[in-house]
Structures are given as C-alpha cells and as structure tokens.
Amino acid sequence: MEKKITPTSKTQKRNEMIKSAFDIFYKNGFHATGVDTIIDGTGISKRTLYKHFLSKEGLIIATLNYYHETRYKEIAGYIEKAVVENPVDKVLMIFDLLIKLVDAGNVNGCFAMNAKTEYAHKAAEIEAVCDLHINKLEMLVEKYLFEANITDSKAIATQVIMLFEGSILRSKAIQSSAPIKLAKKAAKVICSQS
Q1: With bands split at pLDDT 50, 70 and 90, how would you rate the model's confidence at 36?
Q2: Which keywords does this chain's UniProt record carry (predicted)?
Q3: Residue 81, by phi and psi: left (phi above 0), alpha (psi -120 to 50) or beta?
Q4: Is residue 4's pLDDT more than 80?
C-alpha cells in the first residue's frame, strides 16, 4: 500500500527540520554549519531539505522566523502575565527574563543577533529578518514607555534595546548574567530621568 503524504505531515516534517536546524545553528553558528551537518542532524535527505528550502539561506531565514515567533511570544507573555502595574517595571522585565535564561544555561546569545553578526552586509534577506526581531522588541518596549507617559518614548526604547543587546553580547562572552543586571540598572536610570 502506498503511503499518502498529507499537507499536515508535510508541514510537520518542515517544522521538525526547522527546529533541528535551529538547534544546530544555535550551537555551532551559521557559517560553521554545513548542509551535510544539518542533514546528519535531522536525518533527512539533501533532496528533501532543498524541496522545503531552496537554499541554506532559506533554511536560516526559516529558523530565524521560528526564533522570532517563539522568543517574542515568550517575552511578551512573560511581561503580560506579570502582576506589575507600572509600565516602566514591565519594560525592565525583559532583563529579568534574560537573566533567567542565562542563569539556566542559555549562554549562546540572541539567535537573531548571532545571524546578523555573521551575515552583516552579506545577505540582505537574513539581515531583514534579524532586524524585524529587534524592531518588534523595541516596539514592545516603546508601547510600555508610552503608557508610562515617558517623554520621547521611541528614543528611550531604542536606548533600552541597545542596553539589552549589549548585555546579551557581554553575557555570552563571559557566560554570566552579571552584565544583564547592570544593563537593567542603567535602563531604570534612563527611564526614570525621562
């Protein structure tokens, strides 16, 4: 009997490939990970990989979209579920979540920032997806700063995200959440002076 492939199973297989490739890229980096490594890690054929993703870059974009969807949802949910009334305190919670992640052993940094660094000025489509992730985070921060009646909430949100990004890089380098705690203090000062 011939096995029927349903659209659901195709989507499921595609999602499994994305999640496996995501783990491999996150651990090893993008340039250091060849297609053969992905194939070995996912157990699929090269033909199947290229059927779902036209190129390695297409797969990278899919993993970046996966990261953005899951991480952004995690950050927004973390803030929304908190019983914190002050919108500035909600903004500062992005640092709290980051501290928890690093303290739990996630010291690989931000997947989108890693890709942006590796592909800077080399792959516009990859950079665009990375920028989307950071821009959405900045918009989330700006939303809460606006609710707090912070003057020039857009510029302050940019500064907070710069501290956030810098603390991610530094915490990755030293494998400690200490830089994130310092960045949170600096962000609190910036927000309180506005």
Answers
A1: confident
A2: DNA-binding, Transcription, Transcription regulation
A3: alpha
A4: no
Q: Is residue 90 included in any domain, yes or no?
A: yes
Tell me how far apart the alpha carbons of residues 76 and 81 are, in angstroms, rounded to a whole number. 9
- Total number of domains constituting the chain: 1
Question: Residue 1: which pLDDT band, with cuts at 50, 70 and 90?
Answer: very low
Alpha-carbon distance of 56 to 52, in angstroms, equals 11
Domain of 164, in residue numbers: 7-192
Residue 1 lies in a domain: no
The residue ranking higher by pLDDT, 2 or 105, is 105
Q: How far is residue 101 from each of residues 8, 96, 108, 157, measured CA to CA in Å?
A: 32, 9, 10, 22
DSSP per-residue codes, 65-126: HHHHHHHHHHHHHHHHHS----HHHHHHHHHHHHHHHHHTT--S--HHHHHHHHHTTT-HHH
CATH number for the domain spanning 147: value is 1.10.357.10
Is there a domain that residue 28 lies in? Answer: yes
- The answer to whether residue 63 is domain-embedded is yes
